[in-house]
Amino acid sequence: MHINSDMFWPEIVDPDTGAPLPEGELGELVFSSILKEGVPMIRYNTHDLTRIHYGKCACGRTTPRIEKITGRADDMLIIRGVNVFPTQIETAVMRYKEVLPHYMIYVDRINNLDVITVKIELNPSAFPDTMKGLEKLTKSIEGDIASITGIHAKVQLVEPRSLPRSEGKMVRVIDSRFKK
Ligand SMILES: [Zn+2]
């Protein structure tokens, strides 16, 4: 996506320090307004995570471009030192017609190790009817999550409509690590 940088100057900053990051690195998108008078916006932090590119685009435009937003910095989970986004897990889940797009991510710390469990509802009209088939499906989804995120998550297939439904903004992550 092109940014009209003569009106809004975009920068990508480190989510922890706020320091600008080099071209192509993943960080939080901040904007400063250039033409606005009276209430200028200086480094307004969107908390959206993306990368910025300044080179000339194939379409001919020369303004900076940002990549598709990968997620919000607030949604990011750090599992055993690896940055994981719930949307990455969703990508893996959505590949399977045997499950519904209803899932919950549970994170806990057991014996000083981050443990992540993904509960996914089975699709009543498409799930395998043998234990062996269910095991194979579980392993396959675990493999996809591992290849997308780089971490091992335990997958638990559960009955349709057995996971909590939240109203308004979906709550997908229950992180119990810091509540003890
Ligand atoms: Zn372009």
Descriptive notes:
The protein has 180 residues and is α+β, with helices and mostly antiparallel strands. It has 2 domains: 8-73, Roll (Luciferase, domain 3), CATH 2.30.38; 76-175, ANL, C-terminal domain (GMP Synthetase, Chain A, domain 3), CATH 3.30.300.30. The protein is built from 2 helices and 12 strands, in the order ββββββββαββαββ. The protein has a 4-stranded antiparallel sheet with strand order 1-2-3-6, with no helix packed on it. The radius of gyration is 20 Å and the shape is elongated. The chain starts with 7 loop residues before the first strand and ends in a 5-residue tail after the last strand. The model has no long low-confidence stretch (mean pLDDT 90). The protein binds zinc ion. The site of zinc ion has 4 residues, from loops.
| SS element count, helices | 2
Secondary-structure-based class equals: alpha+beta
Range of helix content:
10-25%
Number of strands: 12
Bound molecules: zinc ion
Span from first to last CA? 43 Å
Indicate the CATH topology of the largest domain.
GMP Synthetase, Chain A, domain 3
Order of helices and strands: EEEEEEEEHEEHEE
**CATH architecture of the largest domain, please?**
2-Layer Sandwich
The spatial strand order of the largest sheet comes to: 1-2-3-6
If you compute it from the alpha carbons, what radius of gyration comes out, rounded to the nearest whole angstrom? 20 Å
The domain count comes to 2
The average pLDDT value, as a whole number, equals 90
Largest sheet: 4 strands, antiparallel
Q: Which stretches are poorly predicted, pLDDT < 50 over at least 5 residues?
A: none
What is the 3D form? elongated
CATH homologous superfamily label of the largest domain: ANL, C-terminal domain
Text of the CATH class of the largest domain: Alpha Beta
Strand content: 25-35%
